[in-house]
Amino acid sequence: MRKLGNSNKKMKIILLLVIFFIMIGIICILLFQRNTQGTENANSSQQINETVETSSPQTFKQVENYDIYYTVKGILNNYITMIKEANGDEYIETGKLQQSREEIITILEEEAIDAIYHMFDEQYVEEVKLTEDSIREAVQEYIQQGDYTKNVNYNLKIEEIYEGDISTQIKLILTKFTINDIEENLLIKLDMQNDTYSMFGQEYLNSREYNKDTQIAKIEIDTNSVTSNNYNHFDYVNTNDQYIVNQYFSEYQTKLLHQVESAYDMLDKEYRENKYESQQEFTEYVEQNYDSLKSNYLSKYLINQFEEYKEYVCLDANDHYYIFIERSLTDYSVILDTYTVDLIDFTQKYDPADISTKVGMNVEKVLDAINDGDYRYVYNRLDETFRNNTYGSLENFRVYMKENFYEENDIEYLEFSEEGDTYIYRAKIKNAAEDQSEQKNITIIMKLLEGTDFVMSFSIE
To answer: Distance between CA 72 and CA 126 in Å, rounded?
Structure first.
C-alpha cells in the first residue's frame, strides 16, 4: 500500500509537469502569432504610407471656373493699363485738367511705375533687384505710338491659365498670355481672404523651372497673407451667363473697331475660309459698317451646350449674329452669321425634316445672306447654267440684287410643289424696313444635294 501511494504521487507530479509545459507551449504560440500579426500590420501600415507618398502629387490644374478666370483677367487688364500709362499710351483728356500736358504725363508715368512695382511680390522684388528704372525699361517693349491724345489698344490674349492651392487662403495662378503678340508669363499669388495679390515674373519662373507640371508642394512661396497696399487689391468676379455673354460681345466689338487683324484671326477657321477671300475683304467690311458697329449693343442671346463646346448665339441691335464657340476659357472662336457654315442646331433640325421644310430652311439662309449684303454666298448657290447665262459674273449679280431686292427683306411662303427632283416655292418678298405693304412675287426653284448642300434659281415678278 505504501509503494502504491508513492507511485500515485509520482504520476501526479509528472502530470503536472506535462500540463505546465503544454501551457508554456500555448503561451509561446500565442505570443508568436501576436508578433506576426503586429509585423503584418506594420508592413500593411507601411504599404499604406508608401501608397500615399508615391501617389501622384498635386500639380497645377487648368482653370475651369469662370469666376477665377475673369478675376485674374481683371488683374491682368489692370497691369496692362499701368504699362500703357507708363509708356504714355493711355488716352487722357488733358484739356479738362489744371496741370500742363507735360506735368500730367510725368505724374501718370511715375504713378504707373510705382503701381507696377507694388504689384510684384517682395520676394521677387528682392531676388531680381527690381527697381523703378528697370520697370521703366521693361515696359518699353510694349510701347505703341500713343501720346495721351490718341486711344491706343494693347491686345491681351490669355493663352494658358492654371491654378493650385498652397493653403485654404492662398491660391497660385500660373498664366501665359500675350500683350500685342509679345509673350509673358506670370505666377500670381491670390489671397482669397483679403482680396489682395502679388506677382512673380518670368525670371522667377525660369530660375526655378516652374511650370504647370511642377508639384505645388515644391513651389517656394510662403503661405502668409498678402499685405495690402494701394495697388494690389482685386475685385472677385461673380459671373453668370449674362456677364459672360457681355464679356464676349464687348471684347469682340472692341477688336472690330480697334484691332481688325485680331478680330479676323478670332474668326472660326472654316467660317473665315468660306466667308472671306482675304483679310483685306474683312477689313473693308468693318470699315463700311464702322458707324453701326460703334453704336451697336447686345440685344438677345441664347446658349447651347454641346458635348465638346458651348455655343453663345448673340443678336445685336441690328439683328446681326455673333456666335461664340467656346471650347475652353482660353479657346473660343467667332462666327458672324448662321448660313455660311452649318451650326449643329441647324443640322439637328435639318436632317430629320421633310422636303418642304428643308427647302424652306435653305431659303431662309439665302434671305439672311441677302439682308447681310453677302451676294457672293447667294451667287455660289445658284445653278451653274442659270448663273452663267443670266448674270455672267458676281459683279453683275450684285447690281441686279441691289436693284431688285429691298435693303431688308421678309418672305411669305404661298405654295410648294415638286417636279421630279426639283422643288418649287412661290412666295412674296416684303420690304421689312417699311410697313411691308411694298412687296414682290418670287419663284424659287431648288435642288437638294448631299448633306445640307443645294443649288437654286429664282425669278422675280
So the answer is: 24
Using one digit for the tens of pLDDT, what is the confidence trace for 327-341? Answer: 999 999 999 999 999
Per-residue pLDDT of 335-376, as tens digits, reads 999 999 999 999 999 999 999 999 999 999 999 999 999 999
> Cell for 18?
506535462
CA atoms within 13 A on the CB side of 20: 6
Residue 261, Cα to own-chain centre: how many angstroms? 19
Q: How far is CA 222 from the centre of its chain?
A: 31
Residue range 417-436, pLDDT digits in tens: 999 999 999 999 999 887 77
Q: Which residues contact 242 (CB under 8 A, 6 or more apart)?
A: 301
Contact criterion met (CB below 8 Å) for 246 and 298:
yes
Q: How far apart are CA 301 and CA 380, in angstroms?
A: 30
Give whole-number Cα distances, 121 to 62, 126, 198, 224, in Å: 23, 9, 5, 12
Determine how β-strand 331-335 pairs with β-strand 321-328: antiparallel
Helix pair angle (101-119, 132-139), 10° resolution = 110
Nearest to 86 by CA among 38, 133, 49, 30: 133
